[in-house]
């Protein structure tokens, strides 16, 4: 069978690579053509476009690169027609993927969405396009099944979260070697995950690092994003107790005692590595006021959303200050509170369905098109 996969971001490349491995196991004659990255390329198939050539974030950047984006859409449609796949598998990346899906559905090509857009958080009106343009939807969060099936009468398959596979399948980090290679000392580590965009990183690190001198028995290690150069981070490495590693977040989390994490998928990754965390978010005042009115969720972290209760403390906007961060971080270092959080993490992982998301998804896709 012929599979065309579109992943437009680094996370999609990771989950796409695991899905491709599973597809090759389920269908030994699989012919895969894809948009993705280096991880997918290592598995096999034919790389059409790399995700780094597709990353346009923010309204102004999109407008400035509109011609390139429209050309990519046109190129993608032509490439799909030439390949004539049995199914297109869309991985997240909704702005681009939903445009292609509408066209593909009209052409009579099977359309499967893996890691659907988070319309339960905002843009819920996209449900009309999803119901119209997709034959199958594979969701990765337990509450999404009820959202689509009960609220919107659209059958979906809950396959579990692919992050569990990604973490389970990775090589164990050698703590001694990792610390030596990255010039870290023997102190236990508090990981800092401040996001991936410059403005976000600057804002979050300025407040996260304000508590460094209150925890001198620990070393604070910044997880550098692959999208940013070391030169940008140098301004934050002003004391001996603050270190830096680039593009090694999973290795860092696997040996960390606690973490300060900006909201997003990183909150779930941190929990799955069994690292007690404080979730920190401080945005532009106007943007925050707008978001608060558009997004009507009880929590901002995936951990709390999945558990439907506060498992990890969320310090948002004015609450994200040195005093509160110090208090909450100190709690995480107390044995009783740590054990409570870790026990909740175990329940969280079981709710996510355990290992095998990629395999389950591949089996369902192959079964559907045979």
From TrEMBL:
<dbReference type="InterPro" id="IPR003835">
    <property type="entry name" value="Glyco_trans_19"/>
</dbReference>
<dbReference type="GO" id="GO:0008915">
    <property type="term" value="F:lipid-A-disaccharide synthase activity"/>
</dbReference>
<protein>
    <recommendedName>
        <fullName>Lipid-A-disaccharide synthase</fullName>
        <ecNumber>2.4.1.182</ecNumber>
    </recommendedName>
</protein>
<keyword id="KW-0808">Transferase</keyword>
<keyword id="KW-0328">Glycosyltransferase</keyword>
<comment type="function">
    <text>Condensation of UDP-2,3-diacylglucosamine and 2,3-diacylglucosamine-1-phosphate to form lipid A disaccharide, a precursor of lipid A, a phosphorylated glycolipid that anchors the lipopolysaccharide to the outer membrane of the cell.</text>
</comment>
<keyword id="KW-0441">Lipid A biosynthesis</keyword>
<keyword id="KW-0444">Lipid biosynthesis</keyword>
<dbReference type="Pfam" id="PF02684">
    <property type="entry name" value="LpxB"/>
</dbReference>
<keyword id="KW-0443">Lipid metabolism</keyword>
